[in-house]
Amino acid sequence: MYLSAHSRSFTSWANGACDTKRNFISKERSIMPITRRQISAKRAEFEAQCPSFFVEFEGRQFECFVLRQSMEPALHQFAFQMVAVDFDFQVDRVSDLNEVALFGVAETVPEHWRPFIIQHEMKEYLTPCCCDDAARYEIDLAEKNLQPGEFINYLNRRRNFFRSLISYAEARAGYAPEKVAEFRLSLSAFERVCGGV
């Protein structure tokens, strides 16, 4: 969602992450559809440089990567995703989802929080839902898996992330107003829950 190469509407290595700022494609700035070949090339780059971890989503396994915060220093605790423009999660049953989708998260995200953020991205980009639905999905996962005190901390940090994301997007050319509106919906989802705990 945040650092994105999707063109539709992380073991240990060098302190536990990789820096892949070069060759990075931003969703909002990309005019070319993302192909499976581009995903394969970026995956090879990540595999050579980044620690990985696996996340299950709707019964399917994805290899995900831990990325250096220096990849995007202006956006603390970012997430990254690429999904092939010709892939439909509901229809396509490719033998290896890693051929058609690529996900990562910043090294600054606590390790046990990473799957929740990655699953937010997966929900948003692999299923027919919006950012608000993905945020509510993420909140439910975190609530089921974190102790109450840590859950409150998680909510507050994610709420602050979405505030930062909105400022980040508004300060950069290329972010469509519709995308910023989606970020605001996610922020609202976190604010509603933060107000109730």
How would you describe this protein?
The chain is of the alpha/beta class and 197 residues long. The protein has one domain. 43% of the residues lie in helices and 14% in strands. The chain has helices at 36-49, 114-126, 131-145, 148-170, 177-195, and strands at 3-4, 52-57, 60-67, 79-83, 101-106. β2 and β3 (60-67) form a beta hairpin. α3 (131-145) runs antiparallel to α4 and α3 packs parallel to α5. 39% of the residues are buried. Mean pLDDT is 80; it is low at 1-31.
What's the structural blueprint in terms of helices and strands?
Layout: E1 3-4, H1 36-49, E2 52-57, E3 60-67, E4 79-83, E5 101-106, H2 114-126, H3 131-145, H4 148-170, H5 177-195
Parallel strand pairs: 1-4, 3-5
Antiparallel strand pairs: 2-3, 4-5
Helix pairs in contact: 2-3, 3-4, 3-5, 4-5
What level of helicity do the residues show? Answer: 40-55%
Radius of gyration: 16 Å
Estimate the mean pLDDT confidence: 80
Number of helices: 5
Describe the sheet with the most strands.
Answer: 5 strands, mixed
Structure summary:
With 197 residues, the chain is an alpha/beta fold. The protein has helices at 36-49, 114-126, 131-145, 148-170, 177-195, and strands at 3-4, 52-57, 60-67, 79-83, 101-106.
Question: What brief labels describe this structure?
Answer:
197 residues; alpha/beta; 5 helices; 5-stranded mixed sheet
